[in-house]
UniProtKB/TrEMBL annotation:
This is Raffinose/stachyose/melibiose transport system substrate-binding protein. Keywords: Signal. Coiled coil: none annotated. Gene3D superfamilies: Periplasmic binding protein-like II (3.40.190.10). Residues 1-28 form the signal peptide. Pfam families: SBP_bac_1. The keyword Transferase does not apply.
């Protein structure tokens, strides 16, 4: 079945209309729920995943075959422009029936604006999704659920198994072994760690991969939320110091290396390791299908608060219902399907993502290994999960501060202090 795909050319032609808020009005007779009673219905689904257009089309083919009369029209917009386009679309009359929406703090503006339909009691299976994941789809003020979570992203260290073998290296299980691995690679003229520090959004991810176990992961989360600890806590400062300690294992001009360049460093074999999210797996498999990739949890450093290595994670992406959709009955039916194991398995198999739906099996070896590590010992990606509900965003502040650390313009204590000052402008502890 043919669907409308938003290409860059189509976006260029229509962006002025979208961004000016002058989207075409809906055809006459399409008031709220009017098309629910029709034999045929077209559901517009919007996303920022331009790289997954064909995969989503394949997934929705499955749904259409099971639901004759339903056409799912999938449109994908550029990630960097999506938030503004979605806000404009939801404010007008020609937006999507089902938008992919952000999680946690970045979801709240759409909720506050009344643009999304609450789904509590209308979607089966939500209580089966992990509380930490469903939290990314819940309104901060009213506690209502507004979306079905799509995926869980885990953060870990990826490594090139062939490079490890060529250098007689094993996956490190202690911090001493971790340092030894990096020293050996450095001595053998192999860049130990690929990091795109020019793009500061990746730096808080790196900080948590290296340091979450040092500051205490979930236990520290509880303390900082209830006010019994702050980001100036010595354990958190020590975790940031680890980031600076790792600088010697990166490209000398690491702050000049873009995120895309760091991916190429890894997939081309120029670097042995890549600290990143599970969202990288699909990219790596496309860029280097023959590459022998593994992943591991970074071992605990000296004086770590956690008792075992951890894998930080967060919910990524949700599917919601536009409160102005004229097709709410059909939209709720599709949203219910998003919460089923059938859809969850398609997310795993076709999108190479960790589904938010429990009970999904991962046949891909790289995914299975990363998921097993996560299941052993979980932790939140702290700044994204809890500190993006106000301005400045915690991730934005720390990203800029880590850049300065790598440039020699800031130390760990100063970075932690700046982070605490930034989030204190809007964050109030629960106590």
């Amino acid at each position: 079945m043919r669907r409308k795909l938003l290409t860059l050319a189509a976006f260029a032609a229509g962006s002025a209309m979208l961004l000016s808020g002058c989207a075409p009005s809906a055809p006459a007779g399409t008031g709220a729920d009017s098309s629910d009673s029709a034999d045929d219905v077209t559901l517009k689904v919007w996303s920022w995943r331009t790289e997954d257009i064909e995969k989503y089309n394949s997934i929705f083919d499955v749904y259409e075959k099971e639901n004759p009369g339903v056409t799912v029209e999938f449109e994908a917009f550029q990630n960097t422009e999506y938030n503004q386009i979605l806000t404009t679309g939801l404010a007008g009359s020609d937006g999507p029936d089902i938008p992919m929406v952000r999680a946690y703090g970045q979801l709240q503006p759409n909720i506050v604006a009344g643009q999304l339909e609450p789904i509590d009691g209308k979607v089966d299976g939500l209580d089966e999704i992990a509380p930490s994941v469903i939290a990314g789809a819940v309104g901060k003020e009213d506690g209502k659920t507004y979306a079905v979570p799509l995926a869980t992203q885990t953060l870990q260290m990826f490594y090139n198994k062939d490079i490890f073998k060529e250098n007689d290296l094993e996956v490190p299980t202690t911090w001493k072994e971790f340092v030894a691995v990096n020293e050996t690679l450095l001595a053998n003229d192999v860049t130990p760690i690929a990091l795109g520090a020019k793009d500061d959004w990746i730096l808080p991810i790196f900080a948590d991969i290296i340091g979450s176990g040092r500051y205490g992961g979930s236990e520290f989360e509880k303390k900082v939320l209830d006010g019994s600890a702050t980001f100036e806590d010595p354990d958190y400062v020590a975790s940031l110091q680890l980031v600076e300690d790792m600088k010697k294992y990166m490209t000398p001009d690491v702050v000049g290396v873009s995120y895309t360049d760091s991916q190429i460093q890894f997939t081309s074999g120029q670097a042995a390791q890549f600290p990143g999210g599970s969202f990288e797996i699909a990219t790596f498999s496309t860029q280097a299908p023959d590459m022998n990739i593994g992943s591991y949890q970074v071992p605990l450093p000296p004086k770590a608060v956690a008792e075992a290595p951890v894998t930080p994670a967060y919910a990524d992406g949700n599917f919601a219902i536009n409160s102005k959709s004229p097709n709410k009955e059909a939209a709720f039916k599709l949203l219910n399907w998003f919460a089923t194991p059938e859809f969850g398995q398609l997310v795993a198999d076709d999108l190479n993502q960790f589904s938010a739906v429990p009970g999904v099996e991962y046949s891909d070896k790289v995914m299975a290994e990363a998921w097993d590590n996560y299941e052993k010992s979980k932790a939140p990606y702290l700044l994204l999960v809890n500190f993006r509900y106000g301005e400045p965003l915690g991730t934005a502040v720390l990203g800029q501060q880590v850049q300065k650390m790598l440039l020699g313009e800031q130390d760990a204590a100063g970075a932690a202090s700046t982070l605490q000052t930034g989030i204190s402008q809007w964050f109030t502890p629960t106590k």
